[in-house]
């Protein structure tokens, strides 16, 4: 109920004159938090407000405070993982999303965890999460590139090649993808010569 009232208040303030800017909405939320620092609805709203404007560092203390109050809420865990992912704190993403088998195969956050594991050089663990993501969302070339890289780092050049070719279909102009495909062919050829 409280979240709904806050949203209505913010919506009305942003639609009715005077029109409210990012900083004015931020100010409203911070004033409410001064009166009640544990207001979960305001913490949630302010965290999302920052994230929607790609202000991840600013969002971090508010979503972390909310996480301390609601550790078991999937939505809070996902939002915190998104913040850490965008700040490059891949260890924290792994800690949050791998705990208690939180992710379902259909969750978009599989990509955050998969890429984080790649950044942590846990290539074998990353593949399943990226494949889960790609089973639902196939319109972006970048996950295919990440998948190709994970396969490549494990010496699975045929699978890497397939992933890079899928990326190339979505981004045929990319010289990096073409170079990755070429490297896979070279590595695959070297494997055949060594047999």
Give the SSE layout:
Blueprint: H1 2-15, H2 22-35, H3 40-52, H4 56-69, H5 74-86, H6 90-98, H7 109-119, H8 123-136, H9 141-153, H10 157-170, H11 175-194
Helix pairs in contact: 1-3, 2-3, 3-4, 4-5, 5-6, 5-7, 6-7, 7-8, 8-9, 9-10, 10-11
Output the CATH class name of the domain at 138-195: Mainly Alpha
- Category from helices, strands and their pairing: mainly alpha
The pLDDT mean sits at: 88
Overall radius of gyration: 21 Å
Task: Summarize the model shown.
With 195 residues, the protein is mostly helical.
Description:
With 195 residues, this protein is mostly helical. The protein has a domain of 58 residues: Serine Threonine Protein Phosphatase 5, Tetratricopeptide repeat. The chain has 11 helices and no strands. The termini are far apart. The model has no long low-confidence stretch (mean pLDDT 88).
Summary tags:
195 residues, mainly alpha, Serine Threonine Protein Phosphatase 5, Tetratricopeptide repeat
């Amino acid at each position: 109920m409280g979240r709904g009232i806050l949203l209505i208040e913010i919506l009305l303030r942003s639609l009715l004159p005077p029109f409210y800017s990012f900083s004015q909405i931020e100010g409203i939320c911070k004033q409410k938090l001064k009166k009640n620092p544990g207001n979960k609805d305001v913490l949630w709203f302010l965290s999302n407000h920052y994230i929607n404007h790609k202000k991840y560092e600013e969002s971090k203390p508010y979503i972390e405070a909310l996480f301390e109050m609601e550790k078991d809420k999937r939505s809070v865990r996902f939002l915190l993982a998104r913040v850490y992912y965008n700040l490059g704190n891949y260890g924290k993403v792994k800690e949050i999303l791998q705990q208690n088998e939180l992710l379902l195969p259909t969750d978009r956050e599989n990509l955050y965890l998969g890429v984080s594991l790649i950044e942590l050089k846990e290539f074998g663990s990353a593949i399943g999460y990226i494949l889960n993501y790609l089973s639902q969302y196939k319109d972006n070339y970048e996950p295919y590139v990440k998948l190709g890289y994970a396969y490549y780092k494990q010496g699975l050049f045929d699978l890497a090649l397939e992933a890079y070719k899928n990326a190339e279909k979505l981004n045929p102009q990319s010289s990096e993808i073409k170079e990755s495909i070429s490297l896979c062919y070279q590595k695959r050829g070297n494997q055949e010569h060594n047999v």
